[in-house]
């Protein structure tokens, strides 16, 4: 069997899902351009900035993509490529797209505030505090993981570091010029074309002027950059960088699809489904935790209700940004699976162990792109650079989101200290960066990633819980949110229980304690949500007045 039909059929399924299931979901959320969005209501030129749909999509997609839809699906192929592809499509359409759009719309109707505030309004202050603490901890974890990944990537490939630095200067210039251009669409298109051409040129230029620093220095440089990106206006750095970077990933997807169609490689991987992996554990729940961003990811809810909702110009823009952005990411996950199933299972296991998922992805796609006449080494470097660029995008977005979460936690509290922490973005960002440095010093990727996976999917379940309660209190039938919510809680609680038990047996008591704490947290929030629904509307979870 060849790879091309899998890629084509997956693309068709995702497009049809946007058209037909999307129409159903959009109606459920009652999207209406007549409502004033937070970006207009609270426009401040820093965080609340009404922006063009294509610009917001670029920011949102660049922020949620990162390395997640590449690393997770490739590792999950351990259980078999067929279950991986099925879950990416089913999860992306019925779970992830609903989760992302729901988080975004709920935030749009709550002054652009985070899921934590939505929980406060619908479940209570105690629920908000628990969720904000959890989401803040998860964001610090993400910052630490991605800072470690990027620093090591920059050491191994200094050319990628040079290109990334050039991208930042290009983004600032692009942001300043487009701000002066205003609403002139023709000029914006011309500036975009020039910016994208320069960005692709910098990919090549970076290989000519490699920038080499040691690991520790890179960590401080990266977190210093993240601090600056968090406190400056989104229109100056974060938004234009994400917008331009999104064209890197669009280009990668287009070149990858063309490479697949022309090369039409055979699938060498066997069709067997492996229900247990010696290293990972059982297919349920591990597959659904490992394939995070490609199907559903709790981190997306923080982006959707954090930075993205503050930039949406009109409510209907959320359709393509929230629902469409998730489906594009699911397609990237399909491409990631395709990049490795052209290997036999023995080859896959050997290369995964020796080179890791990102290198496998770069080598696989680079080889397919070479059929287009692109030198294979240049193609491989381009893919690796794209992954690194999006990891850097995730880093700076996470820092801003952690700052938002930290400030929201102290909103409404009495006392000068609480007021300072809730309003001063420089102090709150400094605390975020310091905590990230402390966490990095306690362990790198290998130590932190398994914990991140479980915490991330619990975050998705909690976000779906918040959206479901919000809808049900509006007397909207919420089964399309409740079903994914119950499934994700089953996945998460099973995963955390197994994770806690395994680490307890291995005498890793701290990890076992953290997993147990997350387990208890989710149960408490479920109880609070049920109690809130019962007290306020006499509607038990799973039913509706209508």
UniProtKB/TrEMBL annotation:
<dbReference type="Pfam" id="PF02554">
    <property type="entry name" value="CstA"/>
</dbReference>
<feature type="transmembrane region" description="Helical">
    <location>
        <begin position="320"/>
        <end position="343"/>
    </location>
</feature>
<feature type="domain" description="CstA N-terminal">
    <location>
        <begin position="6"/>
        <end position="351"/>
    </location>
</feature>
<feature type="transmembrane region" description="Helical">
    <location>
        <begin position="479"/>
        <end position="501"/>
    </location>
</feature>
<keyword id="KW-1133">Transmembrane helix</keyword>
<feature type="transmembrane region" description="Helical">
    <location>
        <begin position="61"/>
        <end position="82"/>
    </location>
</feature>
<keyword id="KW-1003">Cell membrane</keyword>
<keyword id="KW-0812">Transmembrane</keyword>
<feature type="transmembrane region" description="Helical">
    <location>
        <begin position="243"/>
        <end position="262"/>
    </location>
</feature>
<feature type="transmembrane region" description="Helical">
    <location>
        <begin position="426"/>
        <end position="449"/>
    </location>
</feature>
<feature type="transmembrane region" description="Helical">
    <location>
        <begin position="378"/>
        <end position="395"/>
    </location>
</feature>
<feature type="transmembrane region" description="Helical">
    <location>
        <begin position="130"/>
        <end position="151"/>
    </location>
</feature>
<keyword id="KW-0472">Membrane</keyword>
<feature type="transmembrane region" description="Helical">
    <location>
        <begin position="217"/>
        <end position="238"/>
    </location>
</feature>
<protein>
    <submittedName>
        <fullName>Carbon starvation protein A</fullName>
    </submittedName>
</protein>
<feature type="transmembrane region" description="Helical">
    <location>
        <begin position="455"/>
        <end position="472"/>
    </location>
</feature>
<comment type="similarity">
    <text>Belongs to the peptide transporter carbon starvation (CstA) (TC 2.A.114) family.</text>
</comment>
<feature type="transmembrane region" description="Helical">
    <location>
        <begin position="507"/>
        <end position="528"/>
    </location>
</feature>
<dbReference type="GO" id="GO:0009267">
    <property type="term" value="P:cellular response to starvation"/>
</dbReference>
<dbReference type="GO" id="GO:0005886">
    <property type="term" value="C:plasma membrane"/>
</dbReference>
<feature type="transmembrane region" description="Helical">
    <location>
        <begin position="189"/>
        <end position="211"/>
    </location>
</feature>
<dbReference type="InterPro" id="IPR051605">
    <property type="entry name" value="CstA"/>
</dbReference>
<feature type="transmembrane region" description="Helical">
    <location>
        <begin position="282"/>
        <end position="299"/>
    </location>
</feature>
<feature type="transmembrane region" description="Helical">
    <location>
        <begin position="88"/>
        <end position="109"/>
    </location>
</feature>
<feature type="transmembrane region" description="Helical">
    <location>
        <begin position="157"/>
        <end position="177"/>
    </location>
</feature>
<feature type="transmembrane region" description="Helical">
    <location>
        <begin position="6"/>
        <end position="26"/>
    </location>
</feature>
<dbReference type="InterPro" id="IPR003706">
    <property type="entry name" value="CstA_N"/>
</dbReference>
